[in-house]
Automatic annotation (TrEMBL):
GO cellular component, one term: chromatin
Region (Disordered): 1-58, 1222-1266
Job of this protein: Component of cohesin complex, a complex required for the cohesion of sister chromatids after DNA replication. The cohesin complex apparently forms a large proteinaceous ring within which sister chromatids can be trapped. At anaphase, the complex is cleaved and dissociates from chromatin, allowing sister chromatids to segregate.
PROSITE patterns, sorted: SCD
Higher taxonomy: Eukaryota, Metazoa, Chordata, Craniata, Vertebrata
Annotated InterPro entries: ARM-type_fold, Cohesin_Scc3/SA, HEAT_SCC3-SA, SCD, STAG
Top-rank lineage group of the source organism: Eukaryota
Coiled-coil residues: 221-274
The protein's name: Cohesin subunit SA
Compartments it resides in: Nucleus; Chromosome; Chromosome, Centromere
Biological process according to GO: cell division; chromosome segregation; sister chromatid cohesion
Gene: stag2b
GO MF: chromatin binding
Similarity annotation: Belongs to the SCC3 family.
SUPFAM superfamilies: ARM repeat
């Protein structure tokens, strides 16, 4: 590490992170008046003018304003050559260095986005800290953008121009100006001070400038070091000459030159140490990730450029520490910096200690959450592996190996390169002059075997395509050596060579197929590509060459391969896919017709030998690929295909006639023959049109017989259903191209007969048959739905088929009984494989497909949307298995019809509620797991509506409407006075209250009142808590920033509202309620005969939670009663002076107060035994409240909480005292919003806590006693 020599006293650099613009970093004048530092105040420049001379006023430029901006503008535009810009500045510096230096200072200030300008007076008289503070004050803080972060093409180029300017400036000044102890000292001091600023723009820009300045100085130091070495070598050479030949004057010249170079080197190291300790050491751990990334990027450059000085552990440790940075871009810079070091093998010895210390961290970064970081970490390990093979342990390598199967292609490609370097770098060298070995004897043979071994050991046998794609860029030549692969499969091993096992041959064939597909299609496998990429001309040529080469090779070798492995299902299936990637013209141009005949013979033999569905479908696809009318081989292949199909259909009809012959019971051999032939026909019908053979009649006859007799083998029924499905679809494809009405009628008849047949098979005893019938039926209903006439196909309207109610019921019943089952109840697996994990996964996959098929019917409106209620209610119970499907279905249905989707969701909750009642009875516990599960499901449903209340407003309102109607639909079985049977459903419904808009909450609350009686509002038993909870959820948040406090008095100094103002407030409340009542039930009356209107100003609807908390503490009745609040004594017996001035906003019925008084009297009689005991407690409470009320004036100021006494705890006499001089009975008190929110968060009332309302009986009893 470069030692930091003691700096001169006239120029100091900050040494720790706590430094803040001290005088040590100012542009201070040297005490001795030497060349270092600023000029004296009266000293003139060469131009004859002082720094603060003409052209400047009040610290700002006047005439030379454009001159200030010129440097910044030129660099920003980037149109001028940077060399000329710097040369112009250097000329100005030589003319007047103070003026030029001031321009450079302002350049850095303006590059930071600051609008301020450093004037000559400021430069001469102010310290660094004062200048930066002044610039900070003039910084435009309206926007957080500054040149380095601004968007746009101009600003994107600015960073490069800015960095280039600094590099060119140092390069042009490296021979003289940077050693004048003025320019660099001033610039470094300025950048050091700015880099310690609290302003991000200053800190970011100055750090970038300082780091680029350091990089430029490193280049200068490197050149000096080279010159010193050359001078030293010349000196040694000259000194070693004979005395007669030695030139002493040259020796002295070389000594003098070396001394000057050494002084310059020391000066440069001085500057570099100042920047490193003053900027880097503090900014590499800056709070801003971009700044940290800049420092790490540049230190990597220093170590790479000047490794003798910087490539040591003292500097490497900063990179190692920063690899743990929490920001991906910083970690990425660390890795790229290290790559530049590990790429140079000469530097490996200096990196040994660092590698051993931070190797584990680098290996762990291959699994970084940022894919870019993971890619670079793998590339770095590849360089480490390339430099030395002993550093990485087998465990380290294995952690990278498995990444070749990553879904992220760049990670997989990097891992493939690492794998290729590790496993395939030991290629056998070929002897010069020796003939090139081909086939099994080629150098690639062992490497291909190694690939097969790796693939088998990874135990991911279904992902060969991903392995091939990972190795494609690094080992394409190896993977495209198909001649070697076929030789390994066909040729016998040489003596001493171990032959491939059956498992290895299977893996090799699969890898070979994947390489052929990759070469022919030129795109990655499914899950890795980001879309089709436009191929370059070179890539297209390579693709054509590869297709030609593979066709020429496999056209010859494929028939013998098929003949060798004809009985192996897996090998044959993969080999039969090869012709799909052939260039079929090669068969004609290459005169390979005999090999085509051999291929067709082998395919025919395979069809006759095999009954496996995968093999038969592979044969069908091969025929389809070869039967292309564009190629001349079409006729030859078409004849072979027609002959094969004729024989199969004739055989099927003959076997079917014997199989269905009356009076004879078919044996197992006949059933097998029918099944095998039907399998072949079905497999071919998938890809080929077999309409000319009229398979519908024979298959329908077979299915009908199975229904009548009930003893048809399941596989025959399954394939007959599938074959008939293909018949209908091929017929539809033919009709869609244009046909007569007769064909439409025939297709419509066949389709409806087939749907009826599938519906009948839904009740089959065999699960496999039912699943097949269900899947096909869903597909047919979707294809022949009303969607088929879209896109200008109105002629197909007669084919539209909508399922009737019975069919919809059967489909839904099938889903409920075969999809929503426990894993152990699944009877689909056989042979005791239920415990097998693979069998469980396969069964789950099958059930997911069944559910997805039905959900598509819901989404495309084939079945009624409300049938989705039975699906949605399973969301929580089967979340792990089907949660994604159900959630997507809800999302799609909401896009189609928001209101109907909401009605379906509430219907699903109602169904679950009914099921719970039937299971637990009417007296269930609301804390039971069943009820809590329904509430949690409602909460999940609520979250799916999102945050945009405007879009979901109507849907949420309709949901509440249906929920309220359901809750009050059934009366209580115990008779009047008891809660309705479904009242607890309101507790579930309250989960959706937060999704209501504020005005809609009031409207829903009024709609709720239509179903309530007056007695319901007074109930407080536990069985009525759902109603209380739901009403509170509708009232919460009704008015966020104000509270309406009902009181007969308030403290002195409170804001008093006139009667006119109160009347206006109430009128607006009524208008708001009416304006929000635009939902579907608004046309109905909002008052029922059993409800009595209550005074609006005594409602807690307008109250904030903070006020209600205080009421709960005091034991008020109206803390839970909403619009049915009980009148207080002060309202029943108002003061004679205030009674005439009470606004008559409602004409309350005469018997209202009478009825309330009677009910209170009844409660008083029940609680008289507790009155005396609690009276003392109340007296103490009242005394405390009176003292609090009389604390003084000013209680309604911004910082104070209003102290108001409960109207239920105020006597008439006390009201007279407190209301003296006031002309109102009820007051609306508006708290400051901030205070209201703070109290609301601190005082959330618990309306279900009996302790919070335990004293209201004493309150009422004491008031009545007086």
């Amino acid at each position: 590490m470069i030692a930091a020599p003691e700096l001169p006293s006239e120029f100091h650099y900050p040494q720790d992170s706590d430094t803040r613009f001290s005088s040590d970093t100012d542009f201070s004048e040297a005490p001795d008046g030497g060349k270092k530092g600023k000029k004296a105040a009266g000293e003139k420049g060469k131009g004859g003018k002082g720094v603060g001379g003409a052209g400047r006023m009040n610290g700002h430029y006047q005439e030379n304003g454009m001159e200030n901006l010129m440097l910044f503008e030129v660099v920003k535009m980037g149109k001028s050559a940077m060399q000329s810009v710097v040369d112009d500045w250097i000329e100005a510096y030589k003319t007047d260095r103070d003026m030029a230096l001031l321009d450079l200072i302002n350049f850095f200030i303006q590059c930071s986005g600051c609008k301020g300008v450093v004037s000559g007076e400021m430069f001469r008289n102010m310290q660094n800290s004062e200048i930066i503070r002044r610039m900070t004050e003039e910084f435009d803080e309206d926007s957080g953008d500054y040149p380095l972060t601004m968007a746009g093409p101009l600003w994107k180029k600015f960073k490069g121009s800015f960095c280039e300017f600094i590099a060119v400036l140092v390069r042009q000044c490296q021979y003289s100006i940077i050693y004048d102890e003025y320019l660099m000292d001033t610039v470094i001091s300025l950048l050091t001070g700015l880099s310690d600023s609290q302003v991000r723009a200053f800190r970011h820009t100055s750090t970038l400038a300082a780091m680029k300045l350091m990089t430029a100085l490193v280049n200068v130091a490197l050149n000096l070091s080279i010159n010193m070495d050359n001078t030293q070598r010349q000196y040694e050479t000259e000194r070693n000459k004979n005395v007669a030949k030695r030139a002493n004057d040259r020796l002295e010249l070389l000594l003098q030159k070396r001394k000057e170079l050494q002084e310059n080197q020391d000066e440069i190291e001085n500057m570099m140490n100042a920047i490193f300790k003053g900027v880097f050491v503090h900014r590499y751990r800056d709070a801003i990730a971009e700044i940290r990334a800049i420092t790490i990027e540049e230190i990597g450059m220093w170590m790479k450029l000047y490794s003798d000085a910087f490539l040591n552990d003292s500097y490497l440790k900063y990179v190692g520490w920063t690899m743990h940075d929490k920001q991906g871009e910083v970690r990425l810079k660390c890795l790229t910096a290290l790559q530049g070091l590990y790429y140079n093998r000469e530097l490996n010895t200096r990196l040994e200690l660092f590698t051993s210390r931070f190797k584990d961290r680098i290996v762990s970064m291959t699994l970084d959450k940022e894919y870019d970081v993971a890619v670079q970490a793998i590339k770095l390990l590849t360089l480490v592996l390339h430099s030395t093979d002993e550093v990485l342990s087998p465990e380290d390598c294995e952690s990278v190996y498995h990444l070749v199967y990553s879904a992220h292609r760049p990670v997989a490609i990097a891992a493939g390169e690492f794998l290729f370097k590790k496993l395939f770098s030991t290629r056998e060298p070929e002897e010069e002059g020796a003939p090139k070995r081909r086939g099994r004897q080629s150098p690639n043979a062992n490497l291909i075997k190694t690939t097969v071994f790796f693939f088998l050991e990874s135990e991911l046998h279904e992902h060969a395509a991903y392995l091939v794609d990972s190795l494609w860029e690094s080992g394409a030549d190896l993977l495209k050596d198909w001649e070697c692969m076929t030789s390994l499969l066909l040729d016998d091993p040489v003596p001493g060579e171990e032959a491939l096992t059956d498992r290895q041959e299977t893996a090799l064939i699969e890898i070979m197929l994947c390489t052929v597909r990759q070469a022919a299609e030129c795109h990655p496998p499914v899950g890795r590509g980001t879309g089709k990429r436009v191929m370059t001309a070179k890539e297209k040529k390579t693709q054509l060459d590869d297709r030609t080469r593979m066709t020429e090779l496999f056209a010859v070798t494929l028939p013998p391969l098929l003949a060798k492995y004809s009985i192996d299902t897996e090998k044959v299936t993969n080999l039969l896919q090869l012709p799909q990637f052939f260039d079929l013209d090669i068969y004609t141009t290459g005169r390979l017709e005999k090999h085509l005949e051999a291929l067709l013979r082998q395919i025919r033999e395979i069809v006759e030998k095999h009954t496996d569905t995968e093999v038969l479908e592979a044969c069908s696809k091969t025929y389809h690929a070869l039967c292309n009318e564009e190629f001349t081989i079409f006729n030859r292949v078409d004849i072979a295909r027609s002959q094969l199909l004729d024989e199969m259909v004739d055989k099927f009809n003959r076997l079917l006639e014997d199989f269905l012959q009356e009076g004879e019971e078919p044996d197992d051999d006949d059933a097998y023959q029918v099944l095998s032939t039907l399998k072949r026909i079905t497999a071919f019908h998938n890809a080929h049109d077999l309409s000319q053979w009229d398979l519908f009649s024979s298959n329908f006859k077979l299915l009908n017989t199975g229904i009548e007799n009930g003893d048809m083998p399941e596989q025959i029924v399954v394939h007959a259903l599938q074959c008939t499905h293909y018949v209908v679809l091929w017929y539809l494809a033919k009709v869609s191209e244009g046909s007569h009405r007769k064909e439409l009628v025939s297709l419509r008849k066949q389709m409806r007969m087939f749907c009826l047949m599938c519906q009948r098979y839904l009740t089959n005893v065999n699960t496999t048959v039912k699943e097949q019938a269900f899947t096909i039926l869903c597909d047919v209903l979707l294809v022949f739905s009303h969607q088929m006439v879209s896109g200008g196909r109105e002629q197909l309207e007669p084919l539209v088929y909508s399922p009737d109610d019975s069919l919809q019921t059967e489909l839904l019943s099938f889903i409920l009984h075969h999809v929503f089952i426990d894993q152990d109840d699944d009877t689909g697996s056989t042979d005791g494989q239920q415990d097998d994990e693979a069998a469980k996964i396969e069964a789950l996959h099958k059930r997911r497909n069944l559910l997805a098929a039905y959900c598509k019917l819901i989404i495309y409106n084939v079945v009624e949307m409300n049938t989705g209620a039975d699906i949605f209610k399973q969301y929580m119970r089967y979340y792990n298995d089907y949660g994604d499907i159900i959630k997507e279905t809800m999302s799609k249905t909401r896009q189609i019809d928001k209101i109907q989707c909401a009605k379906t969701l509430i219907l699903s909750l109602q169904q679950l509620f009914h099921e719970m009642l039937s299971e637990l009875g009417t007296g269930f516990d609301r804390s039971s797991s069943a009820f809590c599960g329904i509430k949690e499901l409602a909460r999940r449903f609520s979250l799916t509506f999102g945050l945009d209340q405007v879009k979901t407003r109507d849907a949420i309102a309709m949901l509440h409407k249906d929920g309220i109607e359901f809750a009050f639909k059934e009366p209580s079985p115990q008779g009047e006075g008891n809660p309705p049977l479904h009242l607890a459903f309101l507790d579930i419904l309250s989960e959706f209250s937060s999704k209501l808009m504020r005005q809609d909450k009031r409207t829903v609350h009024m709609y709720l009142e239509r179903f309530m009686t007056f007695q319901m509002a007074l109930q407080r038993d536990d069985c009525w808590l759902p109603l209380i909870s739901y009403r509170n959820s509708l009232q919460a948040g009704g008015d966020d920033d104000t509270m309406s406090v009902v009181s007969g008095y308030s403290s002195r100094g409170s804001s008093v509202r006139s009667k006119k103002t109160k009347a206006c407030v109430f009128s607006l409340a009524e208008e708001s309620s009416s304006s929000s009542a635009d939902m579907s039930w608004q046309h109905q009356s909002m008052q029922t005969p059993v409800m009595m209107p209550s005074p609006h100003l005594t409602s807690t609807m307008m109250r904030g939670p903070g006020d209600m908390r205080e009421e709960a503490k005091r034991g008020r009745d109206d803390s839970y009663m909403g619009v049915y609040a009980l009148p207080s004594d002060s309202q029943q017996h108002p003061h004679p002076h205030t009674l005439p001035q009470t606004p008559q906003l409602h004409q309350t019925p005469i018997d209202y107060n009478t009825q309330v008084t009677w009910m209170l009297a009844q409660r008083q009689q029940e609680e008289v035994r507790q009155q005396q005991e609690r009276a003392m407690n109340y007296a103490k409470l009242r005394t405390n409240l009176q003292q609090a009320i009389r604390r003084g004036t000013g209680l309604m100021e911004e910082d104070e909480e209003p102290i108001v006494e409960d109207v239920m705890m105020s006597s008439e006499g006390r009201m007279e005292d407190l209301n003296e001089g006031m002309d109102f009975d009820t007051m609306d008190i508006d708290l400051p919003p901030s205070k209201n929110r703070r109290e609301r968060s601190e005082l959330k009332p618990d309306y279900f806590d009996p302790g919070s309302i335990m004293d209201e009986s004493v309150t009422r009893g004491f008031d009545l006693a007086r």
